[in-house]
Design goal:
Blueprint (H helix, E strand, L loop, with lengths): L2 H8 L3 H17 L4 E5 L2 E6 L2 E8 L4 E5 L11 E2 L6 E5 L7 H13 L19
Antiparallel strand pairs: 1-2, 2-3, 3-4, 4-6, 5-6
């Protein structure tokens, strides 16, 4: 875990920290090839410079966000924003279903929209995989 992620976790309440540490462990285990860093103040994983998954503390929960998640065909992931992102929210670590998370992470690797170049394309997303 890099220093920025350690600092991010250290600033959380114990319950939220437990959720984030579980998510960090599982994401890192199932996407070992992904680059992880704090991006826009939240832990995010990238494949070839493209953001694919991250989490953030919201007022009432921890949000797990998949940038291309609307294309996963997973009813437990809810649409987020105006692009292809989808999310799950947690208030306790025991709510994280590890087998669902593993499946979602596999889909995050296999189904990607090109967020890396969205500014260059003036807001138009193209499917990578």
């Amino acid at each position: 875990m890099n220093d920025d992620v350690i600092a991010y976790h250290a600033a959380l309440a114990e319950n939220d920290k437990a959720i984030c540490e579980l998510l960090y462990k599982e994401i890192s285990r199932h996407l070992p090839e992904a680059e992880n860093k704090v991006w826009h103040r939240h832990p995010v994983w990238f494949l070839e410079g493209n953001p694919i998954v991250g989490y953030s503390k919201l007022k009432d929960s921890v949000r797990l966000l998949f940038w291309s998640g609307q294309s996963f065909d997973e009813p437990a992931l809810l649409p987020e924003g105006s692009f292809k992102a989808a999310e799950a929210r947690y208030t306790e670590a025991k709510q994280v279903n590890k087998s669902d998370l593993k499946r979602w992470l596999g889909k995050a690797r296999d189904i990607q929209w090109d967020y890396k170049n969205i500014v260059k394309r003036k807001g138009v997303l193209e499917r990578l995989k």
